[in-house]
Amino acid sequence: MLFSLYLSLYHIMNVLNGAELQKKDRRTKKGSRSQPPARHALAVARRALATRCFVVVALVVAIASASPSSPAASYSKGIISLVTGKVGASGFGSASTAEHVTEGIDASNLTVIITGGASGIGLETARVLALRKAHVIIAARNTVSAEEARQHILEENPSAKVDILKLDLCSLKSVRSFVDNFIALDLPLNILINNAGVMFCPFDLSEDGIEMQFATNHLGHFLLTNLLLDKMKQTAKASGIEGRIINLSSIAHNFTYRKGIRFDKINDRKGYTNKRAYGQSKLANILHTNELSRRLQEQGVNITANSVHPGVIMTPLMRHSSYLMHCLKLFTFYIWKNVPQGAATTCYVALHPSVKGVTGKYFVDCNEFKPSSFASNQLLGKKLWDFSNKLVSSISKA
């Protein structure tokens, strides 16, 4: 419902902008003067206010008319919690920050890998876990930015243990190289946070010939996780400490292609839309998490796997759609989080003792939340696992 709201607002803005352009075009054709800037700005402000009022009224009507047991009521309650910051069963909510949810936790015996830890919520996650005394490995494509992030953490916390290793998730060769370099450090591995990603990219293929959002957001993390599993199993067995894998998904997983995953057209330009491709990759994150969790449980391994939606935050991830997102933020200001709030759910699932033994779940605002029907489809998860394995295998042999 929330993502549909964004899309509805996006279409409303398009209609409004289109109408304005049509008026301007008609004025130009008639040879009349353009609307004065001040009057134009006032008109835009009025439309913005009208749209905000429309959204609030629509939410109130949806909440009032929904049956208490209906999905609409569940989503409505979720939006109310998001707007008000109301806490859930965990004791935390949308207003909670990463520092808040990890307060009092000692992570000094933990080693954590965070992909994309050089900026945005990845950096905040790295900072807070280091603050809780974990040994943090930042896996980043841009090592210069990662070093700047490391220095930022050390300035605040001189005793922080933070290291950097290069990782480009859209290159399976780089993923393998990263794992080799990490294993060479002879460190334990307790927590893997698959945080990095790209969003709303124009159509492009990775160096391995895979659609860029699927390659970066899913396939790179799929291989990375598989290659690090033995190390995590060894660490969990030797230490007796539960290992945790966290995949960052998004509420955007609800907005994907008609069949969920375009298995037979994963790299086709035809039919590609950057929004649905992103949704497809985020759906893949949850399916991967759930199937991984199922397999780990079958093996009796002391490792959990969960997925999270961090919230809607303006970060470098949105560089391909910053104008659109700034416009959306104007209309949906009450549902956006800041970066410390955006990192909260990841940090909660990574460290909090109340999540011990919890696996195969999807978390929103530090509380369990039911994902889409596609995301809950075990057969689709198995199919994606086999498809991903074959894809990785075919690239390795090429």
Question: What would you note in describing this structure?
Answer:
- The chain is an alpha/beta fold and 398 residues long.
- It has helices spanning 2-30, 37-65, 71-84, 98-101, 120-131, 143-156, 172-184, 212-239, 274-299, 322-331, 339-342, 344-351, 378-397; strands at residues 111-115, 135-140, 161-166, 191-194, 243-248, 303-309, 362-364, 367-368.
- The chain contains 13 helices and 8 strands.
- It has an 8-stranded mixed beta sheet with strand order 3-2-1-4-5-6-7-8, with helices on both faces.
- The two termini are 42 Å apart.
- Mean pLDDT is 84; it is low at 6-34, 51-57, 59-67, 69-74, 317-321 and 328-334.
Based on the model shown, name its key terms.
398 residues; alpha/beta; 8 strands
| Largest beta-sheet characterization | 8 strands, mixed
The total count of strands amounts to: 8
Unreliable parts: 6-34, 51-57, 59-67, 69-74, 317-321, 328-334
Helix fraction by DSSP (H/I, runs of at least 4): 40-55%
* Radius of gyration based on Cα positions: 22 Å
- Structural category: alpha/beta
Q: Within the largest sheet, what's the order of strands?
A: 3-2-1-4-5-6-7-8
Family: Belongs to the short-chain dehydrogenases/reductases (SDR) family.
Pfam family, one: adh_short
Protein name: Short-chain dehydrogenase TIC 32, chloroplastic
Topology:
Elements: H1 2-30, H2 37-65, H3 71-84, H4 98-101, E1 111-115, H5 120-131, E2 135-140, H6 143-156, E3 161-166, H7 172-184, E4 191-194, H8 212-239, E5 243-248, H9 274-299, E6 303-309, H10 322-331, H11 339-342, H12 344-351, E7 362-364, E8 367-368, H13 378-397
Helix pairs in contact: 1-10, 7-8, 8-9, 9-13
Organism: Crotalaria pallida (Smooth rattlebox)
Family: Belongs to the short-chain dehydrogenases/reductases (SDR) family.
InterPro entries: NAD(P)-bd_dom_sf, SDR_fam, TIC32
